[in-house]
């Protein structure tokens, strides 16, 4: 292993820029003649627009233009994944206009855009827009939305507020499996709605150039090419060659910056109308009501077991809240990214799931770190722990008894996926050692002496990421391919620029990808530059989400590097007057087997661009290669998370005192970056379990609309994490990599809640919902001890 | 934020005149509540009168029986003061637990008291210690000063100049944080004084900070404090805590405050 190659904890090349304020984020970009947009948003959850009078506002100082939905008649913001109903009929897909048409459907829905010389002027003018809205009753929860007579978010375009009623697995066979069961364990769980809260608020600059007819959009996106395609082809009908989308440095996404948002289309479209660049930057309160939210499921599930505790079948009924409109990938999250994971790490032979996805008068819901897999993991790992308690089995033994054995791969599940590799016993064993599982009883007794309730919880999970094979996702309804592209440009002096279609918004690609190049070409990491985020510089790309950058984007780079080495070997063979088949390349040097002939990579690069002595008959000059890579399968990281908590019974406060994560993420390129990714995921997972909750009142007003009420995790909420890896290699990519971006947020929530319930078991508490706040824990203890006085 | 005129007088007297003359003036005494409110366009003062230049409003002194703190003294300065730590360590700890370092380096004692946020920490100390609020016009006893949520005895053109804290025999403060904002969900200040115990509760009451006379009686008679007699109907309920939970926490925090008073 070289100091900067695969497996080295190279310090992040991008951090100097970020930590010294030299980043270049969308809001840092300013164009000559730039104007500012303010979006007037609905303060009602559901209302009919009777009249919008902008006359007075248009006369306000500095105003260039005001547009409403009546002015902006363009295409609908598209949904990228078609999901069919049980009967094969297509889902209900009501239009999603960038500016509201006729009705507003959630607090935050876009009503009008004011464009002025300054942002303050735009905001001042917006106060002078006179709205005549007829308020309508609103629905915010899935159960309220499907109740008979519920207000309809999309009227007759989505009867019963239903988007689709979908299923996977064989219901009759699963029912049959339940017939022979010795035990059936049931559970009801809610997966709480979350607000993503990336550090950098969303922003967009639209810039139309009358001279060339070209549009440029600078935007806070995880996937600029996808935005170009969706906005260009579907919303504004602009061809790719006249539309450039740039996503410069982006300060965190967690999924919320995947989607094509209204504001991007609004500033791009309006910049042509006012013939000036237009900048929009969200304020933090605006982010709360306009960034797609995450999770929000209500589920009932039944697990059938034989007398020995072996799983026979699983039935799952989930209602998913999609919010008011279909965000770009909203429809696949509670279906193909959720129900396909319900076999988990277990040999459950029959699995059936029914998912109803439902419109409500709330912010649209879409993928958020883990996207569907945390929901599946939470359900399954809560249910397995509950089964162990009900059957009087050990938490670990019930899992071991049902694990897919390490020699059973490839393993076909009853819910579509085929796992390629894994060793769940290995990650379990290592996590139990690190967490000192067997020493828990002594720690519990010691805590009891201090008046504290100590509990331990476990989660053994897997996920599917590295998305994904285009052919597979296409057959499941995806309206896009999911390959990745790479371009390797070797410069005459031997330094290298990589152009990747994936996008870094905090993940450290500029370092990890450079390590691949340093390792493969044997050149110093300082001689490598990673470029991304600009549709004019990058051939194509599907962007970064679903922990796909290394497993898909990294593989594309490896493929292009392979082509570079092939061509360079031919040039080297010519220089050394040898046959290309006899040339070997190692540590940056080309040699001829059995001779002392040697030429280094830099000399070959120079020769490619100064081809005086060159095999012109058979080879083009230059050294630059492209590759596209489309994987054969998803990748399947997995592992074991163990959480230990102490609860103060006087106040209900839960303190996480120990958090251990042993994850199988495939081959590790940079252990320090992987550990950092897992730490971040754990923080978000523990945040969901104990702190974070997005709450609406029954009228659709957001109660947790700022950091005063939405509890973001802080460093003092956590202990030091024990996070490490215990990997098997991915069987279908050359690097053997799986992905690490989401595992922390996927595996940890059930470990935390199982620990809380373990701590409260002696008090008679058997259930608690996320987030397990101090208030809820205290209330659960009260209810368990005084059932008659329960609230 | 809407436009406003900015004034920076050099003394409390000048600031009071400026406040009296302004159409709808507001005092800027740290701005930790006022500025976010203005940024959200929920307040639009005609004039913002900064007390930053009023050197007569800053300072900490003790004569052995009374601790006097200037109104513009920051929470950070109170927390760091050896004078405060020696005289009333509970006050020192309370100041060090307000908000975060940024808030403590800008926010001031006078600013907090003039705003009288129902979840602020200082009102519990001022009422619990039976302090005297000194203004440009008069001296106001703590028992008369707090008049409900965001309501005080201050006139429109009156500015707090200092607070005089009688040094108690012992005191303790226990705070249960709102998990999101980290304001007090419930904060209880217990002071043992020559005239008997005083107990003030912040964060919980619908009318802001209040004295818990039953708990004072329990402490005086040597009982363990409890919140059984607190009227739940007078307590706040929100997404973070029900009135019942707040009532329970008042009892727990009273015990902890008493224990820390020693």
TrEMBL record, chain A:
Enumerate the spans annotated as Aldehyde oxidase/xanthine dehydrogenase a/b hammerhead domain: 20-137
InterPro entries, per this entry? Ald_Oxase/Xan_DH_a/b, Ald_Oxase/Xan_DH_a/b_sf, Ald_Oxase/xanthine_DH-like, AldOxase/xan_DH_MoCoBD1, AldOxase/xan_DH_MoCoBD2, AldOxase/xan_DH_Mopterin-bd_sf
Q: Pfam families under this entry?
A: Ald_Xan_dh_C (PF01315), MoCoBD_1 (PF02738), MoCoBD_2 (PF20256)
Q: Which domain of life is it from?
A: Bacteria
Kindly list the GO molecular function terms attached to this UniProt entry: iron ion binding; oxidoreductase activity
- Which UniProt key words apply to this protein? Molybdenum, Oxidoreductase
Where does the signal sequence lie? none
Enumerate the PANTHER family for this protein: ALDEHYDE OXIDASE 1-RELATED, XANTHINE DEHYDROGENASE
Name used for this protein in its record: Xanthine dehydrogenase family protein molybdopterin-binding subunit
Q: Which organism is it from?
A: Pacificispira spongiicola
TrEMBL record, chain B:
Organism phylogeny? Bacteria, Pseudomonadati, Pseudomonadota, Alphaproteobacteria, Rhodospirillales
Report whether Oxidoreductase shows up as a keyword of the record.
yes
Q: Which PROSITE patterns match?
A: FAD_PCMH
Q: Which InterPro entries match?
A: CO_DH_flav_C, CO_DH_flav_C_dom_sf, Diverse_Substr_Oxidored, FAD-bd_PCMH, FAD-bd_PCMH-like_sf, FAD-bd_PCMH_sub1, FAD-bd_PCMH_sub2, Mopterin_DH_FAD-bd
PANTHER family membership: XANTHINE DEHYDROGENASE SUBUNIT C-RELATED
Q: Which SMART domains match?
A: CO_deh_flav_C (SM01092)
Domain (FAD-binding PCMH-type): residue spans on this chain: 1-170
Q: Name one Pfam family in it.
A: FAD_binding_5
What is the protein's species of origin? Pacificispira spongiicola
Any one Gene Ontology molecular-function term assigned to this protein's record: FAD binding
Keywords in UniProt for this one? FAD, Flavoprotein, Oxidoreductase
Flavoprotein listed as a keyword? yes
Its protein name is Xanthine dehydrogenase family protein subunit M
């Amino acid at each position: 292993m070289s100091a900067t190659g695969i497996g080295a904890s190279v310090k992040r090349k991008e951090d100097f820029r970020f930590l010294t304020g030299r980043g270049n984020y969308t809001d840092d970009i300013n164009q000559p003649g730039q104007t500012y947009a303010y979006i007037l948003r609905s303060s009602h959850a559901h209302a009919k627009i009777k009249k919008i009078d902008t006359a007075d506002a248009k006369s306000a100082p500095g105003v260039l233009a005001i547009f409403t939905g009546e002015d902006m008649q363009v295409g609908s913001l598209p949904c990228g994944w078609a999901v069919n109903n049980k009967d094969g009929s297509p889902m209900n897909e009501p239009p999603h206009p960038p500016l509201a048409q006729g009705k507003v459907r959630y607090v935050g829905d876009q009503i009008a855009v004011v464009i002025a010389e300054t942002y303050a002027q735009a905001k001042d003018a917006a106060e002078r827009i006179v709205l005549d809205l007829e308020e309508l009753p609103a629905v915010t929860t899935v159960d309220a939305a499907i109740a008979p007579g519920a207000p309809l978010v999309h009227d007759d375009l989505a009867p019963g507020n239903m988007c689709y009623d979908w299923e996977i697995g064989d219901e009759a066979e699963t029912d049959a499996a339940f017939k022979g069961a010795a035990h059936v364990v049931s559970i009801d769980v809610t997966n709480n709605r979350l607000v993503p809260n990336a550090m950098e608020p969303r922003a967009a600059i639209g810039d139309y150039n009358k001279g060339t007819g070209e549009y440029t959009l600078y935007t806070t996106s995880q996937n600029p090419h996808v935005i170009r395609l969706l906005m260009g082809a579907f919303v504004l009908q602009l061809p790719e060659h006249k539309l450039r989308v740039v996503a410069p440095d982006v300060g965190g996404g967690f999924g919320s910056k995947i989607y094509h948002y209204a504001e991007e289309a609004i500033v791009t479209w309006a910049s042509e109308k006012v013939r000036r660049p237009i900048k929009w930057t969200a304020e933090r309160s605006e982010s709360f009501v306009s960034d797609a939210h995450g999770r929000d499921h209500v589920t009932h599930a039944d697990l059938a077991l034989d007398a020995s505790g072996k799983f026979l079948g699983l039935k799952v009924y989930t209602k998913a809240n999609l919010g008011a409109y279909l965000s770009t990938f909203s429809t696949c999250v509670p279906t193909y990214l959720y129900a396909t994971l319900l076999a988990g790490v277990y040999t459950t032979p029959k699995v059936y799931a029914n998912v109803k996805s439902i419109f409500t008068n709330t912010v649209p819901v879409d993928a958020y770190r883990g996207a569907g897999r945390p929901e599946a993991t939470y359900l399954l790992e809560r249910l397995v722990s509950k089964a162990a308690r009900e059957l009087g089995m050990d938490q670990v033994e019930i899992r071991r008894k049902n694990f897919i054995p390490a020699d059973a791969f490839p393993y076909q599940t009853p819910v579509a996926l085929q796992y390629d590799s894994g060793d769940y016993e290995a990650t379990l064993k290592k996590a139990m050692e690190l967490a000192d599982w067997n020493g828990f009883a002594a720690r519990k007794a010691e805590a009891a002496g201090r008046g504290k309730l100590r509990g331990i919880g476990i989660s053994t999970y897997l996920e599917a990421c590295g998305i994904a094979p285009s052919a597979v996702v296409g057959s499941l309804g995806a309206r896009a391919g999911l390959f990745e592209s790479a371009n390797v440009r070797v410069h005459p002096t031997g330094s290298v620029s990589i152009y990747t279609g994936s996008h870094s918004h905090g993940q450290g690609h500029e370092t990890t990808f450079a390590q691949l190049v340093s390792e493969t070409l044997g050149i110093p990491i300082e001689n490598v530059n990673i470029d991304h985020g600009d549709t004019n510089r990058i051939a194509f790309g599907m962007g970064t989400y679903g922990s796909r950058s290394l497993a898909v984007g990294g593989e594309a780079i490896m493929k292009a590097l392979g082509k570079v080495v092939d061509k360079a070997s031919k040039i080297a063979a010519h220089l050394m007057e040898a046959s290309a088949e006899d040339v070997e390349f190692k540590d940056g040097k080309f040699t001829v087997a059995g001779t002392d002939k040697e030429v280094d990579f830099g000399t070959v690069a120079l020769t490619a661009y100064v081809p005086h002595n060159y095999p012109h008959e058979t080879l083009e000059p230059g050294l630059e290669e492209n590759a596209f890579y489309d994987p054969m399968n998803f990748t399947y990281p997995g592992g074991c998370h163990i959480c230990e908590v102490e609860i103060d019974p006087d106040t209900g406060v839960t303190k996480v005192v120990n958090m251990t994560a042993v994850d199988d993420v495939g081959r590790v390129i940079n252990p320090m970056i992987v550990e950092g990714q897992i730490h971040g995921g754990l923080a978000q997972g523990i945040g969901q379990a104990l702190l974070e909750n997005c709450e609406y009142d029954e009228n659709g007003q957001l109660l947790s609309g700022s950091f005063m009420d939405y509890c973001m995790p802080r460093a003092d909420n956590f202990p030091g994490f024990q996070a490490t890896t215990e990997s098997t290699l991915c069987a279908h990519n050359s690097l053997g990599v799986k992905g690490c971006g989401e595992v922390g947020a996927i595996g940890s929530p059930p470990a935390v809640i199982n620990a809380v319930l373990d701590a409260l078991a002696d008090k008679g508490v058997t259930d608690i919902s996320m987030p397990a706040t101090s208030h809820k824990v205290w209330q659960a203890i009260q209810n368990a001890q005084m059932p008659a006085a329960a609230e | 934020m809407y436009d406003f005129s900015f004034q920076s007088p050099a003394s409390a007297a000048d600031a009071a005149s400026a406040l009296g003359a302004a159409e709808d003036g507001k005092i800027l005494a740290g701005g930790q509540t006022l500025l976010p409110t203005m940024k959200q366009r929920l307040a639009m003062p005609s004039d913002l009168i900064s007390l930053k230049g009023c050197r007569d409003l800053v300072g900490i002194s003790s004569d052995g029986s009374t601790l006097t703190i200037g109104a513009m003294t920051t929470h950070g300065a109170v927390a760091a003061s050896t004078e405060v730590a020696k005289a009333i360590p509970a006050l020192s700890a309370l100041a060090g637990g307000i908000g975060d370092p940024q808030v403590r380096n800008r926010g001031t004692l006078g600013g907090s008291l003039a705003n009288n946020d129902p979840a602020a920490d200082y009102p519990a100390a001022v009422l619990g210690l039976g302090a005297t609020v000194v203004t440009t016009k008069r001296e106001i006893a703590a028992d008369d000063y707090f008049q409900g949520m965001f309501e005080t005895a201050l006139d429109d053109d009156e500015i707090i100049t200092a607070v005089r804290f009688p040094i108690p025999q012992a005191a303790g403060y226990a705070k249960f944080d709102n998990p999101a904002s980290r304001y007090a969900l419930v904060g209880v200040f217990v002071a043992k004084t020559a005239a008997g115990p005083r107990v003030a509760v912040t964060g919980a009451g619908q009318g802001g900070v209040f004295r818990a006379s039953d708990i004072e009686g329990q402490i005086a008679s040597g009982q363990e404090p409890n919140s059984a007699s607190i009227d739940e109907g007078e307590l706040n309920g929100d997404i973070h805590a029900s009135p019942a939970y707040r009532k329970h926490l008042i009892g727990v925090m009273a015990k902890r405050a008493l224990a820390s008073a020693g």
